[in-house]
Design goal:
By secondary structure, the chain is α/β, with parallel strands linked by helices. It has one domain: Aldolase class I (TIM Barrel, Alpha-Beta Barrel). Helix content is 30%, strand content 22%. The protein is built from 10 helices and 21 strands. The strands form 6 sheets. It has an 8-stranded mixed beta sheet with strand order 9-10-11-12-13-14-15-16. A 3-stranded antiparallel beta sheet has the order 2-8-7, with no helix packed on it. A 3-stranded antiparallel beta sheet has the order 3-4-5, with no helix packed on it. Strand 11, helix 5 and strand 12 form a beta-alpha-beta unit. Helix 4 crosses helix 5 and helix 9 runs parallel beside helix 10. The longest helix is centred in the N-terminal third of the chain and has 26 residues. Bound molecules: iron/sulfur cluster (SF4). Iron/sulfur cluster binds next to loops.
């Protein structure tokens, strides 16, 4: 009898809780969600992974935001949505950018120098960098980009990559994390057909989804935007700690990782912070991690700032080399000597570059031809 009363009480409490939640949710929609602005066409949506059922909605477990999505709402990334109680991706097989690039453009310097890479992106990003170079696609809604979009299934991407004589596929330009299902299906197929995979990402992803992607990736390029939590929250719209977790996880998973840091004048060019960042990379990822300091050019919300002085990039590079990192580059300064790869043992130029062009390559079987030092990376197909 008492047991029955207890059961009824628990049931009653649950009902009361759920009703209060409905009223509260109606009054105060969760801050991490945004409503759909345009009705979504059913034919283009696909079930998304990393869904967790929640009371009166679903939760997306793909990235650290863990958006709670009541029916009809989208996540911060604008491309994942609760449609009829299920988490859906709105961008599967709908790239808005498809290009064949030199791999140096990613920039990836320690994989098949001088090779072509078939590059794709959909709209969407889970971060909001004020200096985004691709904000037209990263900050768009799928509906806004639809006119320029095209359907391209994973099999079609792989076929097109092979026909274009590309050695690899890059998931790049916007944020591949938010088109996760498309990335995963394409990368799996690409591997089966003998292609390599490269992802260029801000690293804002949870460890479990990352673990599932990792086996299909040869190189992951992480855009580490600074080394200051406040800067990350204010200018990037995320937390630095999660990106550092991703970098450690990649090391643990054994995925070859390169890092790029876009140096923005007055925002993340503090040399003490850069020193801290280099120390952290050295200690946690090792001295062989390639690191790029890239030049900012005024754009998007930071059109009022000047381009990064080359001396700032040179100072940052000097700090990184002093901290023990062996492969430190300067990006977006065509013709700079720090575009080259140097042998850390004998100091000879191993790969001479000019912008995206590779002029000389003195690495054979993964070693410096002058002194035999092993150079980390993927040098032969
Ligand atoms: S991937 Fe998008 S929907 Fe999912 S948690 Fe991140 S921002 Fe939210």
């Amino acid at each position: 009898m008492i047991k029955n009363i207890q059961t009824y009480l628990v049931l009653l409490l649950n009902i009361v809780f759920c009703f209060s939640f409905v009223s509260l949710a109606a009054l105060y929609p969760p801050p991490q969600t945004i409503s759909s602005i345009v009705p979504v066409n059913d034919t283009i949506i696909k079930r998304a992974e990393w869904e967790k059922l929640a009371c009166l909605g679903v939760q997306c477990e793909l990235c650290p935001f863990r958006c709670f999505l009541p029916e009809g709402s989208r996540g911060i990334c604008k491309v994942r949505m609760n449609v009829a109680g299920k988490l859906r991706t709105l961008v599967y097989a709908q790239p808005v950018s498809v290009h064949i690039d030199p791999i140096e453009k990613k920039p990836v310097y320690h994989m098949l120098p001088g090779s072509r890479i078939f590059s794709i992106a959909t709209v969407g990003c889970n971060l909001k960098c004020s200096f985004c170079q691709n904000w037209e696609i990263s900050q768009s809604y799928p509906e806004q980009a639809k006119t320029s979009g095209q359907m391209l299934t994973p099999a079609e991407v792989v076929d097109a990559a092979i026909k274009s004589n590309s050695h690899a596929i890059a998931y790049t330009y916007s944020e591949p994390v938010v088109f996760y299902e498309y990335v995963l299906d394409t990368a799996k197929l690409a591997k089966q057909k003998g292609l390599r995979n490269v992802m260029v990402s801000a690293g804002y992803i949870n460890p479990e989804p990352l673990k599932k992607l990792a086996p299909y990736f040869d190189v992951i390029k992480i855009d580490l935007k600074g080394f200051n939590e406040q800067f990350y929250r204010k200018v990037v719209g995320g937390d630095l700690k999660f990106v550092l977790e991703t970098l450690k996880e990649l090391k643990h998973l054994g995925v070859f990782t390169e890092i790029v840091n876009l140096v923005v004048p007055g925002l993340n060019d503090d040399m003490d912070e850069i020193t801290e960042m280099c120390k952290w990379i050295h200690e946690n990822l090792g001295p062989d991690t390639p690191l790029f300091f890239s030049r900012f050019t005024p754009q998007y919300r930071l059109g009022n700032l000047p381009p990064t002085p080359v001396e700032t990039l040179e100072k940052a590079r000097e700090i990184a080399l002093k901290s023990g990192l062996r492969y430190v580059y300067i990006g977006n300064v065509t013709g700079h000597s720090a575009e080259n790869t140097y042998c850390p043992n004998c100091g000879q130029v191993l790969i001479r570059r000019y912008g995206y062009a590779v002029l000389e390559n003195h690495i054979r079987k993964g070693r410096c031809i002058f002194c035999g030092k092993e150079i980390p990376g993927i040098w032969e197909d």
